[in-house]
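During the no-cost extension, the postdoctoral fellow (Dr. R.K.) reprocessed legacy sequence entries with the updated structure-token encoder. One reprocessed record is reproduced below for audit purposes.
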Amino acid sequence: MQIPAQEDHRDLPLYIQIASAIRKEILSGRLEAHQKLPSEKEMMEMYQVARATVRQALAKLTQEGLIHSRRAVGYFVAPPSVDQDLDRLFGFSEFMAYQGVQPSSKLLVAEIRKVSSVDSPLLSALQLKVGDPVIFLRRLRMGNREPLVIAGTYLPEKLFPGFLDHDIEKRSVYDIMDTEYGLKPVEAVQTFEGVTLDELEANIFGLQKGAAGLYIERVGYAGGRPVEYAIDYYRGDRTKFRVHLSDQRRRRELKVVIRQSFGGGKDQRNKANDAPSDAASEAR
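Re-encoded structure tokens follow.
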């Protein structure tokens, strides 16, 4: 790690230059998650600065969520997290790249199903009928190889014929929806629910059963038509969302539905083809 030599950095305070150098190493992947940083004394010698300057740089990176400290041990690179504003619709891959994090996915399930229950939320969410075929995908979404999201996606098969013939493991679903079918969601309604993870989801994340998670149900629209129904589990210890609010006099409205539940909301989630829990069992 070296202090940036670019001309536009030389007039900045030394702690900003040091923080910039370390940030660049983290975002490039040269410093990996959980990797220990040099000690304060080593940084003082490396950059020829006072301890107070080093501590200012470390405090700035801690505030940005890029590093964290362990008492009497030192500073470590923080694992990637989902830290997202809710006033813009991002695909996971697009958002991770925007954060400077390398996105990747592991495909767990990819198949065509039929809506078999009159109680399935797919009927109203995607404007389908019982017996209609739907494409179901279940993926583990990762940032810098750290598992962050278990994503379940339902697409109407009539709108996306031949979808499973595309390289789903290497391409993002939104990219395929956009470039191959012209039906990428441009708006969505999302419901957020705090949950404790079942054994299946916890095992996929590498966590203990009962760990905190965030369940997100989403209906995505393209041209006013529902084209995606998604059920996603986010790690509770790696997720933060922000909501920007304003009153109607400024003609901007953001609808966010938040339900707090710790187990009680599972029954409704299990109705999606028709139950996401059935798909999860197949992913073992």
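Confidence is low (pLDDT under 50) at residues 3-7, 258-268, 275-284. The two ends are 42 Å apart (CA to CA). The remaining legacy entries will be reprocessed before the final report is submitted.
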